[in-house]
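Throughout our pipeline, every protein is held as a single compact record rather than as scattered files. This encoding replaces a full spatial description with a residue-level series of whole-number codes. The remainder of this section carries one protein's record, kept here as part of the documentation.
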Amino acid sequence: MQRIVVLNPKGGSGKTTIAINLASYLASRGHTPVLMDFDPQGSSLRWVKKRQPSQPPIHVIAAFEKDTRTTRAFQLRVPDEATHVVVDTPAALPGQELPAMTRDAHKIIVPVLPSDIDIHACSRCIRDLLLIAKIHREDNRIGVVANRIRRNTLIYQALIRFLHTLGIPIVATIRDSQNYVRAAELGVGVHEMKRYLAQEDVEQWLPLIAWLNPQAAAGPSGEGPPAGGQETQQDSPSATSPPLTAVVANA
């Protein structure tokens, strides 16, 4: 079972968007993901509740809720059949809580927006992951996602220059797209949308999926099943997408 933590103490960086779309991708490819929502806003939990019975199932754990009738370990228990756990972390996460939140994490995704405030917050987040959580660069467990990007802007170029100075791989650049807003409203991910609507967005996820796990990402049989819900196999982005390769994207 792979544990993937989406983390950035800066609010509004797109953690939930990354988490729900990753869970959607995994479910639509025949995996059994668990979405663990630590954010008190409960956005991931609400998104899962919007999904239709015909869509690939995603188990959700409301980790932000505190139930005094049970132990914390029992509340956060993961089903035996789970193949992946995607953790949606809260904003303003104190540095001292990073070791517990990232313990046993195979991969840590840090989304960052192209703004001076977010660049500074990302710098502190990476620093705390290295110094407080004791994550080593050479383990290749931390990957940065440049989120809501508009290319050919000065702030985007400044963001990419900054990210290259961190010594942490940029595993994806994701454009500023209304498809993510529509998908969240419908309880789907961009991989479950009609191909002609979301092809560009889907392609931007390929390097991230490959970085997470190039073999498991394609599905248990090497060819993921068609996405459920709103599309058929002919509409599925995976039907004609090139095979995933074990590469890390460079912006």
Summary: The longest strand covers residues 142-149. The longest helix spans residues 195-212. Residues 216-251 have pLDDT under 50 and may be disordered. Helices lie at 15-28, 43-50, 72-75, 98-102, 116-131, 154-165, 178-186, 195-212.
